Each structure stands twice: as C-alpha cells, then as structure tokens.
What we know:
Layout: E1 2-6, H1 11-22, E2 26-31, E3 46-49, H2 55-65, E4 69-72, H3 79-84, H4 86-107, E5 111-117, H5 140-159, E6 162-168, E7 170-172, H6 188-198, E8 203-206, E9 218-219, E10 221-223, H7 224-234, E11 240-245, E12 251-252, H8 253-264, E13 270-273, E14 282-283, H9 288-294, H10 303-316
Parallel strand pairs: 1-2, 1-4, 2-3, 4-5, 5-6, 6-11, 7-10, 8-13, 9-14
Antiparallel strand pairs: 9-12
Helix pairs in contact: 1-7, 2-4, 4-5, 6-8, 6-10, 8-10
The chain binds uridine-5'-diphosphate-4-deoxy-4-fluoro-alpha-D-galactose (UFG).
Uridine-5'-diphosphate-4-deoxy-4-fluoro-alpha-D-galactose binds at residues 77, 79, 117-119, 169-170, 186-188, 191, 203-206, 217, 219, 253, 276, 279, 283.
Amino acid sequence: MRVFVTGGAGYIGSVTAAELIGRGHEVVVYDNLEKGHREAVPAGATLVVGDLADGGRVEEALRRQGAEAVIHFAGYSLVGESVAHPGRYFRNNVGNGLNLLGAMRRAGTSRIIFSSTAAVYGSPRAVPITEEEPAAPINPYGESKRFFETALSRFHAAYGWDCVSLRYFNAAGATAALGEDHDPETHLIPIVLRAALDGRGGVDVFGDDYDTPDGTCVRDYIHVTDLAAAHVLALECGGDRAYNVGVGRGYSVLEVIEAARRVTGARIEARAAPRRPGDPPALVASAERIRRELGWSPRRDGIEGIVESAWRWMREHPGGYGGGGKLSL
Ligand code: UFG
C-alpha cells in the first residue's frame, strides 16, 4: 500500500515507517523536523519536510504519492507541557490535525490510522482499562487526542472513511537502528538510562504517595516494535475503530528503576520528588480487543528486555541522532 506517514521522523513514526518498508509498503514521511530527526527516516522512505499547518503542501504531497492511507503520528505528546501550555496542544494536535483531514478530503485519501493515547481515559475507574471505559481526559494532551478521535468518527459517519485510533500506552525500547531522542527528554526510561550512562545524578520519582502498591505511578510499557506492528495490522481495517495497544502488565516507577539497575549494573539513585501535574496513578491496558480482532500480540513483554533494548541504543548513540559517536565500553 502507498502509506503517508506524518511524524515519520519521530520515535514511534520512524520505527513504524521501517516496519512498513520491511513489509513491502511504499512510504512517504511528512515531517517538519521540529521534534523528528532526518537521520531517523529509514532508507527506502521518501522524506517531505513540511508542516501540517500548510494544508496545501500536505495535499500536494498526498496527491503526488497517490496515498492510499495516512498514519498520523505528528503531534505533541507531553502531559506536563500540555498542562503548562494548553494552547500549543490544541493548535497542533487539533488545528493541524484538522488541516490534515481537509487535505485528505481534497486529495481523495479516505483511510487513516491515528496515534491516540491512554491519556484519553484520564484517571480510569478500573485497571486494566478496556475500550468501554468512558473517555474522560484530565489534561489538555488527552483532550486534544480525544477531540481528534471524535473528528475521525464523524468523518467516518459523514464520508465513510476507514479510521482506526490506536490508544498507546507507554512506548519504550528501541530497534538496533532507531531509538528515543527527545529534547528535552521527559520520559522515564531514557532519563533513568541517561543517569546510568553519565554515572552521576539520580532520578526524580514524581510522587511516592499514590494509591498504588509502592506509592509510585504504574504504567504499561510496550516495546516500540510491537506498537509499530499494530499499525501495520490496522492498515487492513475497515470502519471506525479504537484499540488499546499495551501489554496488559503494569510496572511502577520504582520497578522500572530497579530493572534499569539490573540491566546497566549502575547504582542509579531514586529521589522522592513532588507529583507531576496531570499524571494519573495507574494506566494499564486490556488489549483483548486488538488481540481478538486483529490477531495482534506483543512479542516483547518483559520490562527488562524493553529497558535492555533502549540501553543498547543509548550506548550506540550517546549523543542521540545528531551528536557523538558510539561509546566504547
Ligand atoms: N517519571 C518520574 N520521573 C521522571 C520521569 C517520569 O517519576 O523523571 C514518572 C512519571 O511521573 C510517570 C511515569 O514516570 O508516572 C512515566 O512517565 P513518562 O513521562 O515516561 O510517560 P507518561 O506516562 O507521562 O506518558 C506517556 C506518553 C504519553 C501517553 C502516556 C500513556 O508520553 O503520550 O504515556 O500512558 F499518553
């Protein structure tokens, strides 16, 4: 299939683009490189540097490729930042997202897979979370993603589009070539591994008085290649659907730090710090629906294997994509 991947120079987008190419799809990556990295665009994909704010450019690129499907990764994705700067999130995730849908309408592309998030559930009433749980986001990031899901349902109803929202839990890990390189980095696993690599400083644990087994937040960490595989399966879906994509097992912040200590052999100090605004205590998926309907299942479901792959990538790329060479150990 000819697949147009917005945000394909970013972390999950680049791994998915590589997976698509590996399976014989034709990929155009559309990315403004604000967060993405040119070096992360896999060989075999065509990169168009452009912004979703520019609907005309999106339309032209869709037409030129003859795009049969869009996978829409581009957007902002940080809970804390969304609380501090809500306008950015609505402008980019909603406003620019609607530009994309308009360009698709004009270009005649009517199939879309969307990077949604567990954050649409807010603080769920029960974990594991099924898709029946009402959407009740508690931060602007989750609200912006929820709005776009709703827009897709409406486009399905009005125009018969095929739309799949994949609600990601916590993407983590790396392939040999592609990994996580954000600036600033706010995600737990790369922060913990950075502390191990630098051999100094510790990790702030944001809140240790949550109503969870050890008081720290629990998340469902899913290997990025398993997440990528879900997109490839979703390309074949018709209708209007939403799927959780997670492993179904939660790990606390302290458990992740402990796993990183085992993998790296470093001490890694954990320091109690105040709660981070917008963080729900526990997010763990029930992924039964995607397993049942699409036959998806995660291949790598242990936290140690996930952390280990991220650690390998970080040691190979100590300065991220742009900087520094391999670290000799
Ligand atoms: N955390 C720390 N210290 C840090 C960094 C993070 O204690 O230095 C904690 C956070 O408070 C949270 C957990 O580690 O409890 C995981 O935090 P991340 O920032 O790695 O990930 P989030 O759970 O905040 O968010 C991620 C994605 C979102 C997605 C969400 C769904 O960034 O896009 O997972 O679970 F919506």
